[in-house]
Design goal:
This protein is an all-beta fold and 486 residues long. It has 1 helix and 38 strands. The strands form 10 sheets. Strands 12-15-26-17-18-19-20 form a 7-stranded antiparallel β-sheet. A 7-stranded antiparallel β-sheet has the order 13-14-27-16-23-24-25, with no helix packed on it. Strands 1, 29, 32, 33, 35 and 36 form a 6-stranded mixed β-sheet that branches.
């Protein structure tokens, strides 16, 4: 059996009890103190079934009653999703995944001393929104900035709540739920926002980048640069924004001029102003929304300007336009991507942004991500046809094909096992091996079983069946002895 751990550098440590016995026991743990309410139902042992990342809980002492005797003040040993083992009185749940708390003690029973234990498991889910550091923050509420964004002010008819994010210098905002662009049309915005500077009429930042990263390939991404006209062209362009875009295949950003101009009216500094664009159009808005659309099929990114009537959609970049780019960008693996926002050129302490729409959704209430998807296993058969695997021969080494696993939400472990007669439980036998091959000792059907498990316990398996024939020999003319040829 071989186990590999994807990306995570900490080893997987199994907490073992030397003697496991069947017994009737009663276990009681006092109610756990929780720093903030999480999701889940309280279980009989005092722990919830699930918590949120960065929530702090007490790892309380337990009591085991065995044959009428109480064994109290038993400290719990915690195994985190990455395999770290700690014995603490409280713990900040910094890792998403499944945690295990094990309570063990030695009892003096009618049959002598026994090691008994009790195990509690619970899951920890990541929030749909996060930052790289603890310095930044978000709130989900009505617009409390004083800018009075129409439709988002408490007390207005049908007013809605939105997401206010404060991003400190050097930090990044992450939307951790995949955006499926296959479900969004060419005019469906995947994000709509406005900047709300702390001081009206002042710049907090001069530019920021919105990045879309392939869920299955972090090296595959597109980015959209939003820069003030002031930064790019001087004070005469204070009221406009320059839109540029690029991708991992095309590092140089491009901004199209499609008759509507390269510039988009958008007020970084939040003050009322009028600016005449180079086409002679004049817009005056103190509060302007800007949206982005992405036609993944056509690879066209566009801005969606809500401050005009009607709203205008302007192409910013066509990533497979070979008249512009040397290489056509091939799109995301499955059409799904994660979104992040990275401000730069800070003039103030933070970048404050009010987001009214994400991934085509108007309801941006923060929730924990529910990860029910199993990792994707990929077996590398090399030059072999997976539908016609070569036979093995008795006594000859047979390669174990390399395997990889990927999970969009977490790291995962890969376990490799070899069996003979895997599909017959009565005859099933585990075959020991070392390295990257195994040696069958008798003819029959062998199966390589690959098993990938993510930090939430979701499992995927892949099977490779190999027929093993009787040993193969050839005659060597030098001494006429039979030699194995593998």
């Amino acid at each position: 059996m071989r186990k590999t751990l994807k990306k995570t550098t900490l080893p997987i440590i199994v907490f073992a009890i030397l003697c496991i016995v069947s017994f009737a026991l009663f276990f009681a743990i006092p109610t756990t103190k929780v720093a903030a309410d999480g999701f889940g139902v309280m279980t009989g042992d005092g722990y919830k079934t699930s918590y949120s990342v960065n929530q702090e809980i007490d790892i309380v002492q337990g009591k085991i009653t065995y044959e009428g005797t109480d064994y109290e003040n038993i400290k719990g040993v915690v195994t985190t999703p990455s395999g770290k083992v700690v014995r603490v009185s409280s713990l900040i749940l910094s890792e998403p995944g499944v945690y295990k708390v094990e309570y063990a003690t030695t009892v003096n029973g009618s049959l002598g001393k026994k090691n008994v234990y009790y195990v509690v498991t619970f899951s920890v889910a990541e929030s749909i929104y996060s930052f790289d550091t603890d310095l930044s923050s978000f709130t989900y509420d009505y617009d409390k900035s004083g800018y009075n964004m129409e439709g988002f002010v408490e007390g207005e008819v049908d007013a809605k709540k939105g997401l206010t994010i404060n991003i400190k210098a050097g930090d990044t905002f992450h939307y951790n739920q995949p955006i499926n662009f296959n479900n969004l049309g060419a005019s469906d915005r995947f994000i709509t926002w406005t900047l709300l500077p702390m001081v009206q009429g002042a710049y907090d930042v001069l530019s920021f980048k919105i990045k879309l990263t392939d869920c299955y390939d972090p090296t595959n991404y597109i980015y959209i640069n939003m820069a003030t006209g002031y930064k790019s062209f001087g004070v005469d362009y204070e009221g406009v924004t320059y839109n540029g875009a690029g991708s991992s295949a095309n590092s140089n950003g491009h901004s199209y001029s499609n008759g509507a101009g390269n510039y988009q009216t958008f007020y970084f500094n939040g003050k009322e102003t009028a600016h005449e664009l180079n086409q002679g159009h004049t817009y005056t808005h103190s509060k302007t929304w800007l949206g982005l659309t992405f036609d993944h099929g056509e690879r066209i990114l566009s801005t969606y300007h809500i401050g005009t009537s009607p709203a205008t959609v302007r192409a910013v970049s066509d990533f497979d336009d070979l008249a512009v780019y040397v290489n056509a960008w091939g799109g995301f693996t499955t059409g799904e991507a994660f979104l992040s926002i990275i401000p730069s050129d800070y003039m103030g302490a933070s970048c404050r942004m009010f987001i009214s729409q994400l991934a085509g959704l108007d309801d941006l209430a923060p929730v924990d991500i529910v990860d029910n998807g199993a990792p994707i296993l990929t077996v590398d058969y090399g030059n072999f046809d997976p539908t016609n695997i070569p036979s093995a021969f008795v006594g000859c080494e047979y390669p174990i094909f390399p395997v990889s696993a990927f999970d969009i939400f977490s790291d995962c472990t890969i376990e490799t096992l070899v069996y003979k007669n895997y599909y017959n439980e009565d005859l099933r036998t585990v075959i020991n091996f070392t390295g990257d091959s195994f040696v069958p000792q008798s003819s029959g059907l062998y199966t390589i079983v690959y098993k990938a498990t993510d930090l939430m316990g979701n499992v995927s398996e892949s099977y490779v069946n190999i027929n093993c024939q009787a040993e193969k020999t050839i005659a060597i003319s030098l001494d006429n002895t039979g030699k194995k040829a593998c």
